[in-house]
Automatic annotation (TrEMBL):
Keyword terms, alphabetized: Cell membrane, Membrane, Transmembrane, Transmembrane helix, Transport
Organism: Photobacterium leiognathi lrivu.4.1
Subcellular location: Cell membrane
Residues annotated as transmembrane: 27-54, 66-87
Name of this protein: Probable membrane transporter protein
Membrane topology designation: Multi-pass membrane protein
Cellular component, GO annotation: plasma membrane
Family, as annotated: Belongs to the 4-toluene sulfonate uptake permease (TSUP) (TC 2.A.102) family.
Amino acid sequence: MILYRLDMLRACGLAKAMNFTSNITSLLTFIILGQVNFALGLTMGVCLMLGAYIGAHSAIRFGAKFIRPVFVTVVLILAVKLAWQAWF
């Protein structure tokens, strides 16, 4: 952001566009190679949209006082899980 003098909003937008492009390219490559499980992918997509919907509405309704502890808790749980997998 500092190197290219982008504000946070433009940097996030650019990152989203770059991620979208690489994801579509990867998806097309895997489809051509026959490596896509469409049933699993569609199920995951529906669950992702449901979670995003619930998360966005929770963030708007309850605000940062609710979101921050949830976020910190999830990050700590994932850190412990990754440490456990790495060492045990």
